[in-house]
From TrEMBL:
Protein name: Trypsin-1-like
Organism: Ceratosolen solmsi marchali
Residue ranges of every copy of the Peptidase S1 domain listed in the record: 36-255
GO terms for biological process, alphabetical: proteolysis
Gene: LOC105366092
Any one GO MF annotation of this record: serine-type endopeptidase activity
C-alpha cells in the first residue's frame, strides 16, 4: 500500500512539472512543427530582448521586447485563446526568475490566417512598464527586409531536437537566410507568402516552444519564429514572419493605443537617428 501511494505521488509530481511542456507538443503540432536545435546556452545579458510567454504559469512561446510596454510574438501563440497569460523578461531560466508582468491587451494582426500562417504576428501590451537594465532591453524593428545569405540569431526555450527534450535555460543559434524562391519550391503544399522568409536547415533551427521568439539580423528584429516542417530538417528550412512588412502596422497599433508609441519610436532606427543628430547640435 505504501509503495502504491509513493508511486502515485511520484506520478503526480512528474505530471505537475511536465504538463506545460506536454501542452507545448499539443499546441505546436498543427503549426507544421513550429520550431533551438544545434544551439548553445545563452546568458540573458547577451539576449536582453528575449521574453517568455506563459499560459497559466507554463512556458508556451517566446517573444521580443520592442519597448517598455510592448512585446512582439506570433499570432498563432495566442489566437482565439483565453487562458491566464503572463510575460517574463530578464531571465534565462524557464518560467522562473526575472521580472513578471501581467498583460493588459493582446492584438493579433487583423489579417492573420490560421490555415496558411500568413500574417503570423501579434502585439502584447503589458500592464506596467519594464524596468530596463542590462538584463532587459528592447531591440529596434528591422528597417530593411532580410536578404539571402544574411546571418540571423535565433533564441528560445524550445526543444533541443525533433525527438529530444526541452532545455532548462535559454538557447541561441545562428542561421542563414534562405533563397525565397527555393524555399517556396520546397514548401509546395504550404504557401510561402511575401510576409514570410525562410532560414536555417540541417544542423541549426528553431523547434517546438520557440514560436514567437526573435530572429535578429545586424541588431534589428527581422523575424518572428513562425512555423516549419520538422526540426533542423536537411531539406526544409524554418519559416519566419517578416517584421519589416509590419513596421507601419506596429507603429499605427501602438499609436492608436496611445501609451507605448513614444517608447517604440525612441528605440526605433529613426528615433536613434534623431537622438544622435540632436546630441551633435
Amino acid at each position: 500500500m505504501k509503495f502504491l501511494c509513493l508511486l502515485l505521488l511520484i506520478i503526480c509530481i512528474n505530471i505537475y512539472f511536465v504538463v506545460g511542456l506536454d501542452n507545448l507538443d499539443d499546441f505546436e503540432f498543427y503549426h507544421r512543427k513550429n520550431r533551438i536545435v544545434g544551439g548553445i546556452n545563452a546568458s540573458i545579458n547577451s539576449l536582453p530582448y528575449q521574453a517568455q510567454l506563459l499560459q497559466n504559469g507554463h512556458l508556451i512561446c517566446g517573444g521580443t521586447i520592442i519597448s517598455k510596454l510592448w512585446i512582439v510574438t506570433a499570432a498563432h501563440c495566442i489566437y482565439k485563446s483565453k487562458p491566464v497569460w503572463s510575460i517574463i523578461v530578464g531571465s534565462a531560466d524557464v518560467s522562473t526568475g526575472g521580472e513578471h508582468h501581467k498583460i493588459s491587451n493582446i492584438i493579433v494582426h487583423p489579417k492573420y490566417d490560421n490555415q496558411t500562417e500568413d500574417n503570423d504576428i501579434a502585439l502584447i501590451k503589458l500592464a506596467k512598464l519594464i524596468v530596463f537594465n542590462r538584463h532587459k532591453k528592447s531591440v529596434p524593428l528591422a528597417i530593411v527586409p532580410p536578404k539571402t545569405g544574411d546571418l540571423m540569431i535565433i533564441s528560445g526555450f524550445g526543444k533541443l531536437g525533433e525527438y529530444k527534450g526541452y532545455p532548462l535555460i535559454l538557447e541561441k543559434a545562428t542561421v542563414i537566410v534562405s533563397d525565397h524562391a527555393a524555399c517556396k519550391i520546397k514548401y509546395q503544399g504550404d504557401p510561402i507568402t511575401d510576409n514570410m522568409f525562410c532560414a536555417g536547415a540541417g544542423v541549426t533551427d528553431a523547434c517546438q516552444g520557440d514560436s514567437g521568439g526573435p530572429g535578429i539580423i545586424n541588431g534589428y528584429l527581422a523575424g518572428v519564429v513562425s512555423s516549419g516542417m520538422e526540426c533542423a530538417s536537411i531539406y526544409y528550412p524554418g519559416i519566419y514572419t517578416k517584421v519589416f512588412n509590419y513596421h507601419k502596422w506596429i507603429i499605427k497599433t501602438m499609436r492608436t493605443r496611445k501609451s507605448g508609441f513614444q517608447e517604440i519610436l525612441r528605440h526605433s532606427f529613426f528615433g536613434k537617428l534623431i537622438e544622435h543628430l540632436f546630441t551633435k547640435i
